[in-house]
């Protein structure tokens, strides 16, 4: 509460608390008064508050505390008479007469006519005299008693007389308070200095532990210490994590590792990296001290004071000749944080800008700038900054929330097209960018080319990213696959030969430098820095760089083709656009974007097969490409593979639950799928509508009945979304685990089926969604044919008859055990209400049953005769 | 006695609309006047006191008449004014840009009679909050950082009669968690809601409609509270000690010979307060604590003891009720008041620091 106030507010608040204390004091509520004075002191320690608190404590006869308070006052204002007087009172109360007399004499020297002091002095001296007189007479024990009583009497008498005077005194103190303010600040500074002098290493340790503002320098130092073999880099944990990936695959040499680390740093800028070839020069001691002081002040919540310290540190550091851009950046960033807390939003912005100038892409100042922008209600800039932070560190919760917040605000402000009004988001790394810069989704169902920005956006986004895509990350990943044999060879070789090879590459990279510059400023900057580093240090370039050097030359052409393709798409010339993208792919086959765009063209030209292939490729390259999922879904929809389309869309919605277009599309696909199912079933069953309804019902029923096994509940419902009983693709959709579960259930059911028709029916309806004929058969076989009418009783319906016959025929039981089939079919006719039931069977169903029975005729079996079969047929048909 | 405080009318200005409320803008010599134009629209004016006169700085006419306003929940940097209007809408205005409110909520179904704020201006610990009381009988607590939904609503249940809430006040905000709201109703009910426990802590009836309640300080452990009523009476409650059955000790005093519209405590001295009367009079009072504020009853339970009030000054300014009054938080003794004679007056009360 008190923490984030400006100096003025603080002093106001302190003043107010003191006033409250005075009021309480006047109401003779000394304890409460003390509380408010204490609060005032905790906000801004002032001599007046201490002095008044001392008086409040005197009234409560807390002598020692009162003396302590007056001591503080006298430290702040050595000549404060009131404090001296009060200390004298306190000391008198404590029985320290000599000291009390000393204080009083000082007061009387200053103000010879101070009646209070005179009176008190006299009193104390009298006490002393009587004490001495009695000392002569009485023993020490007695003396002590008397001492106490007299002192008490004395103080009480005094106290009452002084009530009025002292209250006046407090009022006076109030007036004089403003004067003391300056001194307060001095005192504060003094305190700070004391803190600074305190042992530094301990402080550093503390700071590292604390969450607030982990000073980058310290971490750098620790890293350098711990990895003495590795070049000192300022790679914080994140960067290290990144590097571990390559480390896993390339443990060959540590130097290589180091180089790679440097590269990732240069590119990633996760934290202020070391831009200079040499390790960053250590900050001058004075600056470090100032910064530490600032940090500790910040942690204590004294933001204004912290800002001051940082400012001092910055001015100090700017005087230095060496390049301290990193340190400066941190300082600016820290000061920005302080200013933000103090409420100086503009100052915060300026500082963030400074920090970012010095160290582009560092997330802390970015985040701070974003919050500052948000404060100023410049949501657009805030959004961009948040997004930028997310590009750097997608897991940053603050940024996630911030971007969401500002997106909401922007939506409110600018309506649905708010994105168009955004300034461009600075790009940063390919992987994260794909996730975050996902533009709106292409139109859902209509295949008409849209001149909309989704396409434009989508195309633009990867473009700016382009240099990065070719940069470190992806290639390094690809590289691990591609160059395995290569690496093995290398491993066999000695590191010296490797060095020779690498120096060649270093030259190559030098050539490429000029090209890189053209592409994007920041990128160029980074690369240039990196290059400089490499040349100076003669480091081994990483393999990823090797890749980069290769791809840089076709990169321009790649871009050109893509650009051309994009414009063609916008105009609606999909054929030529496809060719452009194909060329793109030829140039660099590992570009997901090209595939993805070509897929769009194929879609527009209603070539779903090609589109699907392209989407597959895209998804291979990039698992979480939402657009690719969407397009594949569209393609599969065209191919009438609705279940797969639905699968793609559900996958997409898992990635991006808010995607409206996908939701609409999913509904559409489901509807189509349902229609298809209906038409499929229509062949077998007149009452197909009822069937689906039943399926729905049973689904619900399962949920309730299987309550004892919550897992199965989920499975079945999930199943309901994924697959449908009659869908030929269905079985694929069933995951092995669900299948296992169902099987278990069926086994369970088959064990108990005899005892309970109810269980049989439950198991049967649970299977409705599984399409696994085997399971059906297993279940069916669990009951003897002659028990069928009993077990099923009146639950038998046309659906069930169909299913049974279907299962029997499909699973080839007809040929293996014709007798059994006959028996089952026979007992179906014996079921309750069979005569009514058969009217529900369609002609097609009946034909199917007859053909099944005909199959039985062909089997050599003695269990039944031709007449029996014919009778059965009749039973069904008539 | 020459030493007693004098109330001096420093500036008097006649306006062309009905004035309901006036508030000093903290840390400035400016104040805001809220009211109702004859055509039913709301008036918001900002004046500055300079060189012995008041200067109109800004004027805005809004669609609905303003009834009340407060800076109590605003930060010292922003100093946003929260207002309640005849339509039941709560709005928060940035006085630099009064065209659109920075916050608004359809707070009540009927006119908002009263408003109070806490947590801003360095007064009161904890979150900034605004409380509104309305003719619809409900008292609602708002956090200007939370849109549309009140933080708390205190209203009678369906079966109970809905009394017109005339006044609300925050108090007891001495720690970030503690906070109380006191509300006065037209039937003489005074209810004290504890916002921490979300419970009715105490209620009483003072027979006449309660026009105004105010704690002497919002940001201390409840000390005392003044409630003014119709029929020329006001009550002072000692809020320090609550007896389980008798509640809070109180004294009542006759004043003004007409409705006592308002009571306002001096920000610089909690024991001095001004009451505004229906006959256009202002009375300045001082409260004196008893020798012992707490005493035990026959069963040994602590109960509070009320002190005494003494009239320091009495002045007649107008023939119409004085409905708006505000002490300057910055200058001791400076105050502004508005009366139904469509005049605003800037007053100076002298010698307050000698009390």
Automatic annotation (TrEMBL), chain B:
Where in or outside the cell is it found? Cytoplasm
What Pfam families does this protein's entry cite? WD40 (PF00400)
Provide one Gene Ontology cellular component. cytoplasm
Swiss-Prot/TrEMBL keywords: Apoptosis, Cytoplasm, Repeat, WD repeat
**Has UniProt tagged this entry with the keyword Repeat?**
yes
Please indicate if the UniProt record lists Repeat as a keyword: yes
Q: What is its main location?
A: cytoplasm
Which named protein is this?
Dynein axonemal assembly factor 10
The gene for this chain is WDR92
């Amino acid at each position: 509460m008190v923490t984030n106030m400006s100096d003025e507010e603080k002093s106001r608040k302190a003043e107010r608390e003191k006033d409250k204390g005075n009021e309480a004091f006047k109401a003779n509520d000394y304890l409460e008064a003390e509380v408010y004075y204490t609060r005032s002191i905790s906000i801004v320690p002032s001599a007046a508050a201490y002095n008044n608190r001392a008086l409040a404590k005197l009234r409560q006869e807390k002598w020692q505390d009162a003396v302590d308070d007056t001591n503080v006052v006298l430290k702040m204002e050595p000549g404060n008479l009131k404090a001296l007087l009060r200390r004298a009172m306190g000391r008198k109360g404590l029985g320290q007469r000599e000291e009390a007399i000393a204080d009083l004499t000082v007061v009387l020297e200053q103000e010879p006519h101070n009646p209070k002091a005179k009176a008190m002095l006299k009193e104390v001296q009298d006490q002393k005299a009587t004490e001495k007189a009695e000392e002569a007479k009485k023993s020490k024990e007695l003396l002590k008693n008397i001492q106490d009583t007299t002192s008490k009497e004395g103080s009480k008498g005094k106290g009452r007389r002084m009530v009025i005077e002292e209250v006046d005194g407090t009022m006076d103190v109030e007036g004089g308070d403003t004067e003391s303010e300056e001194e307060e600040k001095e005192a504060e500074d003094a305190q700070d200095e004391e803190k600074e002098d305190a042992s530094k290493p301990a402080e550093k340790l503390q700071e590292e532990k604390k969450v607030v503002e982990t000073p980058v320098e310290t971490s750098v130092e620790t890293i350098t210490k711990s990895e003495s073999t590795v070049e000192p880099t300022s790679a914080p944990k994140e960067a290290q994590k990144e590097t571990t990936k390559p480390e896993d695959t390339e443990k060959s040499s540590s130097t290589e590792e180091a180089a790679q680390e440097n590269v990732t740093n240069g590119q990633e800028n996760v934290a202020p990296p070391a831009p200079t070839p040499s390790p960053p020069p250590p900050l001058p001691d004075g600056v470090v001290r100032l910064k530490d002081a600032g940090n500790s002040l910040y942690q204590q919540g004294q933001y204004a004071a912290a800002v001051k310290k940082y400012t001092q540190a910055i001015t100090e550091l700017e005087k230095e000749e060496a390049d301290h851009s990193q340190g400066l950046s941190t300082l600016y960033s820290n000061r920005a944080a302080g200013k933000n807390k103090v409420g100086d939003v503009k100052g915060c912005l300026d500082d963030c800008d400074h920090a970012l100038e010095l160290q582009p892409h560092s997330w802390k100042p970015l985040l701070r700038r974003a919050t500052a922008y948000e404060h100023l209600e410049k949501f657009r800039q805030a959004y961009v900054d948040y997004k930028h932070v997310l590009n750097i560190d997608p897991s940053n919760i603050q940024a996630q929330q911030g971007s969401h917040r500002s997106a909401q605000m922007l939506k409110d402000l600018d309506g649905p097209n708010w994105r168009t009004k955004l300034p461009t988001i600075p790009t940063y790394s390919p992987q994260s960018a794909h996730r975050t810069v996902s533009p709106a989704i292409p139109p859902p169902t209509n295949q008409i080319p849209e001149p909309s920005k989704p396409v434009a956006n989508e195309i633009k986004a990867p473009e700016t990213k382009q240099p990065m895509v070719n940069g470190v990350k992806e290639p390094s990943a690809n590289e691990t696959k591609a160059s395995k044999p290569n690496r093995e060879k290398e491993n066999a070789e000695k590191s010296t030969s490797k060095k020779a090879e690498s120096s060649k590459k270093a030259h190559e990279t030098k050539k490429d430098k000029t090209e890189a510059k053209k592409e994007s400023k920041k990128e160029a900057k980074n690369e240039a820095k990196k290059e400089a580093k490499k040349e100076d240090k003669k480091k081994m370039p990483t393999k990823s760089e090797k890749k980069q050097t290769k791809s840089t030359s076709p990169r321009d052409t790649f871009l050109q083709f893509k650009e051309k393709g994009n414009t063609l798409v916008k105009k609606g010339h999909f054929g030529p656009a496809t060719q452009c993208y194909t060329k793109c792919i030829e140039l660099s086959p590992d570009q997901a974007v090209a595939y993805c765009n070509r897929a769009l063209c194929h879609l527009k030209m209603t070539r779903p097969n090609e589109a699907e292939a392209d989407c597959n490729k895209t998804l291979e390259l990039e698992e979480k490409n939402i657009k690719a999922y969407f397009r594949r879904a569209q393609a599969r929809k065209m191919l009438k593979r609705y279940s797969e389309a639905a699968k793609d869309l559900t996958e997409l919605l898992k990635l991006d639950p808010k995607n409206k277009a996908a939701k609409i599309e999913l509904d559409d696909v489901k509807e189509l799928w349902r229609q298809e199912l209906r038409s499929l079933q229509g062949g077998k069953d007149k009452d197909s509508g009822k069937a689906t309804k039943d399926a729905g019902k049973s689904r619900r029923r399962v949920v309730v009945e299987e309550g004892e096994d919550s897992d199965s509940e989920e499975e079945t419902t999930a199943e309901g979304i994924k697959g449908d009983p009659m869908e030929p693709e269905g079985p694929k959709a069933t995951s092995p685990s669900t299948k296992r579960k169902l099987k278990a259930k069926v086994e369970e059911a088959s064990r108990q089926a005899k005892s309970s028709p109810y269980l049989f029916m439950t198991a049967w309806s649970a299977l409705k969604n599984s399409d696994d004929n085997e399971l059906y058969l297993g279940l069916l076989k669990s009951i003897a044919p002659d028990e069928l009418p009993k077990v099923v009783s009146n639950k038998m319906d046309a659906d069930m008859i169909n299913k049974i016959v279907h299962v029997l025929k499909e699973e080839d039981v007809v040929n293996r055990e014709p007798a059994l089939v006959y028996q089952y079919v026979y007992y179906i006719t014996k079921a309750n209400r069979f005569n009514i039931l058969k009217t529900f069977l369609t002609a097609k169903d009946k034909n199917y049953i007859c053909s099944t029975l005909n199959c039985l005729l062909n089997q050599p079996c003695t269990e039944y005769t031709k007449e029996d079969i014919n009778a059965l047929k009749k039973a069904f048909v008539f | 006695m020459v030493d007693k405080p004098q109330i001096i009318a420093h500036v008097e200005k006649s306006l062309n609309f009905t004035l309901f409320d006036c508030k000093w803008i903290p840390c400035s010599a400016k104040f805001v006047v809220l009211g109702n134009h004859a055509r039913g629209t709301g008036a918001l004016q900002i004046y500055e006191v300079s060189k012995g006169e008041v200067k109109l700085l800004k004027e805005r006419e809004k669609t609905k008449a303003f009834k009340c306003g407060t800076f109590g929940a605003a930060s010292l940097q922003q100093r946003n004014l929260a207002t309640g209007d005849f339509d039941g809408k709560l709005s928060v205005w940035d006085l630099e840009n009064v065209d659109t409110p920075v916050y608004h909520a359809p707070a009540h179904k009927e006119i908002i009679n009263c408003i109070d704020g806490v947590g801003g201006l360095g007064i009161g610990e904890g979150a900034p909050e605004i409380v509104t009381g309305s003719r619809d009988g409900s008292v609602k607590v708002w956090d200007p950082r939370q849109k549309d939904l009140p933080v708390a609503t205190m209203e009678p249940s369906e079966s109970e009669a809905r009394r017109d809430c005339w006044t609300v006040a925050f108090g007891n905000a001495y720690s970030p968690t503690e906070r109380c709201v006191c509300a006065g109703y037209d039937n003489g009910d005074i209810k004290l809601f504890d916002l921490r426990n979300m419970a009715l802590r105490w209620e009483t009836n003072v027979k006449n409609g309660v026009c105004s309640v105010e704690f002497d300080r919002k940001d201390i452990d409840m000390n005392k509270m003044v409630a003014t009523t119709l029929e020329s009476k006001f009550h002072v409650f000692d809020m320090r000690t609550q007896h389980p059955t008798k509640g809070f000790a109180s004294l009542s005093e006759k004043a003004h010979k007409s409705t006592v519209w308002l009571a306002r405590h001096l920000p610089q001295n909690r024991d001095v307060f001004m009451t505004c009367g229906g006959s256009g009079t202002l009375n300045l009072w001082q409260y004196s604590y008893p020798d012992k504020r707490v005493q035990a009853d026959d069963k040994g339970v602590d109960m509070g003891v009320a002190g005494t009030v003494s009239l320091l000054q009495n002045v007649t300014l107008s023939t119409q009720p004085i409905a708006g009054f505000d002490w300057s938080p910055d200058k001791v003794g400076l105050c502004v008041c508005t009366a139904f004679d469509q005049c605003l007056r800037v007053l100076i009360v002298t010698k307050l620091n000698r009390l």
